[in-house]
Amino acid sequence: MADTKLSGLEKISVILMYLGEELASEVVKHLSDEELQLIGGTMIKKDSVSMVSSKRVVDEFLGSMGSDNITVQGMQYAQNLINNALGPEKGEAILEQIKRQMGGSGLESLRWMDPGVVANTLKSEHPQIVALILALLDPDTASSILIQIPEERVRGEVMLRVATLKTIPQAAVSDLEEMLNKQMFSDAAGAGSNVEGVKLAAEILNQVDAANEEKIMETLESTSGELAEAVQAQMFVFADLNEVDDRGMQSIIKELSTEILSVSLKGVDEGLRDKFYKNMSERAADMLQEDIEAMGPVRVSDIEKNQQEILKIARKLEGEGKLVRAGRGGDLVV
Predict the structure, then answer these.
(1) Tally of structural domains, the chain
(2) Which of 113, 133, 112, 114 is nearest to 122 (CA)?
(3) SS3 state of residue 33
(4) Pair (77, 92) in one structural domain
(5) What is the mean pLDDT of the chain?
(6) Best exposed site among 4, 61, 172, 209 by fewest CB in 10 Å?
(7) For 162-177, what is the mean pLDDT?
(8) Given this model, what pLDDT does residue 126 score?
(9) Is pLDDT of 65 > 80?
(10) Coil, helix or strand at residue 73
């Protein structure tokens, strides 16, 4: 690593290592799960960062590092950093995802391919194989592939199978390995993965546009009303912000630009808008209302895209315990 040009991810990893676990943990709290996986995976792959390389990066960032004998062990550092930032439970989930994506596996390559190409490749596969693939990808990638599957019925069947997954034995994905002509995982060839199918299905559907989500949920309901209800209970959609406590709403708003807020609230019901307004200062609420009223027509896809940005923040805050929804773990105490 010392004599080669570092990528952007490698430079970010070096800076986080230089900051130290305590300060770096505060920084990564503001990153998405996907960003954490990319950075954590880079740390682990490099494992030991030499001073020659790290000094060059820090010189670029700060001016000078001031020492000639510092090395940082990437694997241990990534584990400590992520666990400190997110807590042991979520930290372990992120680390497990990183390990799955290590070693340039076939699954990892799917993340960088056009979703339409992937969906076209998978269209002749059994829905169970497709479900296994989607379950092992991050929700953003999985949802992009899902909506490109041409047959509406197949999309529903795939999500039904995702929702019922509990474990994924390595043997079950042998057809996928052959098709991709790469080994899926670099080690633990006989191991399997524990998964929460209902939660995975909900996370994938959270990233799907409203029209496709509705059709897929209808297929789920027609097959298993109980399962559809369980998936729905795990989902976090924009209307659910009505159920968020005021402190949680204020935390969400702090992380948003006026532009994202104004586009997201265009066309939503008055009650949900009021939920935002009452958790802002009077001046900020008035300005936001004026921006929305002055805004011309906005494409539905743009509204949904901005709403997804808000929901990403909301899910992150909920996972950190900084946001509470009524009906999730008990009614709110007033």
Answers:
(1) 3
(2) 133
(3) helix
(4) yes
(5) 71
(6) 4
(7) 72
(8) 84
(9) no
(10) strand
pLDDT band at 29 (very low <50, low <70, confident <90, very high): low
Q: What is the largest CA-CA distance in the chain?
A: 65
155 DSSP 8-state letter = H
Is 159:132 a contact under the CB 8 Å cutoff? no
Instruction: Return the DSSP state at 112.
Output: T
Range of the domain at 81: 8-100
- Retrieve residue 264's tokens: 């997201």
Give the separation between CA 149 and CA 217, rounded to whole angstroms.
15
With residue 192 as reference, give the H or E element that holds it: strand 192-194
pTM score of the predicted model = 0.42
Give the residue from 192, 212, 234 where a domain finishes.
Answer: 234
Do 18 and 136 sit in the same domain of this protein? no
Q: Strand pairing of 167-169 and 192-194?
A: antiparallel
Q: What's the CATH number where 124 sits?
A: 1.10.220.30
HSE on the CB side for 78, CA within 13 Å? 29
Question: Do 326 and 236 meet the contact criterion of CB atoms below 8 Å apart?
Answer: no
* Residue 96 shares a structural domain with residue 170: no
Same domain, 130 and 211: yes
In this structure, is residue 330 part of a structural domain? no
In this prediction, residue 3 carries a pLDDT of 39
Choose one of 51, 82, 100: the last residue of a domain.
100
